[in-house]
Amino acid sequence: MNGFGRGFMGLPPVVKNIILINVIMLLADFTAKSVFGKDLTMILGLYYPKSEHFMPIQVVTHMFMHGGFLHLFFNMFALFMFGGILENVWGPKRFFIYYMVCGLGAAMVHESVIAFQYSKIMNIISPEQLQLVIDDGASYLNQGKVFSDETMKNLQLLLNVPTVGASGAVFGILLAFGVLFPNTQLMLLSPQYL
What we know:
The protein is mainly α. It contains 8 helices and no strands.
């Protein structure tokens, strides 16, 4: 289980492919924005089901989209550090199932929190305000504008801002590593030592 010096090519296949897919998707997002003016994060990120932007496939695709290079880097660094060890212990199939279940489970928890917030807003918003948010909320947000009314702004953001990232799946990996190897000593390197 000694992973010193193995590098990226020495990673087990599932971890390696997840990292590659995430990097490719970030590059595709950058390319789509600059060449076609399309934001893949806004298309493949996970929206609340009551949003006009929601598509069922987003439940899976949001795990492969990230909000930028640093978001991707820290998620994939954690996967690189701990995922390979878990995949070597469990095998590729079990590791992949665990990774996906953690990512999907985190999405369901997140969507449940949004559902709770949504129901609270629906109890206090007027029908006119609701219609205004539904009609104009997305276009205002694309212009960088939000409603001045706090309730309308919260609803606008709930319906028009997607969830992206592999953080839920990665936290599942960190949890499994901590449970399986509770006495492992980790050394944190700060920039002064690099």
